Structure formats: C-alpha cells, structure tokens
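Dear colleague,

Thank you for sharing your sequence with our group. We've completed the structure prediction you requested, and as agreed, I am returning the results in plain text so they can be pasted directly into your records. Please verify that the sequence below matches your submission; if there's any discrepancy, let me know and we will rerun it promptly.
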Amino acid sequence: MKSCSVEGCKRKYDCNGYCHTHYYRLLRTGSVEDKPLKFGVKWSGNKREYHRIAQRIKCRLEPEKVHAYDKIRTQRYKFKRSVQNKVFQAIKYGRLEKTDCVVCGSFPSEGHHEDYHKALDVIWVCRPHHDLIHA
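Please find the predicted structure tokens below.
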C-alpha cells in the first residue's frame, strides 16, 4: 500500500502522491504544511472558487501542461466563445434582454443555446435547470 509522500505522514496515498488531508490542504493553501493561506483567498466551500484555486496550484506545479491544455481548449471552443460574446454584447447594448427562468421564473438566469449557429436565439434558465439540461 502506498503512503503519503509528506514526511512523517503514514496515511494511505490518495492523489498526486498525497493523502486526502494533505492533497486538499495543498489545493486550499498552496502548501502541504499547516500555515496561513498563500493566495489570500479563503475557501468557503464554493465549487467554482475551489476549481479556481486548484487551477492556480496546477499552474504553479505544472505550468507547461496547463498552458498546452488551455491552448487546445481555446481552439476547441473558439466558436462557442464568440457566440457567447455576441450575446453579452447584445445584452450590453440593449438588443437582447435577459429574462427570468422559463421553467420556474426565478432570477438570475443564464443563457442556453440549443444551436450555436443561431447566436441570439437564447433560452433563459436558472443555474439548476441549466445543469439539468446538460445532464
């Protein structure tokens, strides 16, 4: 059985050579040592914030891999991003209005495209219903 790579820790290996405790401490603080936060951001349990902090850690640990991945991702989703920017500009200049969720009527809502070739044909749904559409 593999054990954690932190000196003195005998817990079971979980991810990237660390036990569960040390791996998540690394993601939260930038260090496996028990010291104050390095990035000035306290993790509140928010999933998006967690992934943002994890991305910062990865950039420091393996910058060449992250850069290559971002480059591929940018090329792959270039058209999708351009459509999203068109919607943003249309809202900004008043050509398109954000409405309540078409399912439950809650606000704020997010735009969902059934077809990205119809840039301004957007369905407005709240985050939970948007997740259900993509599930």
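Summary note from our side: DSSP finds five helices and two strands in the chain.

Kind regards,
the structure core
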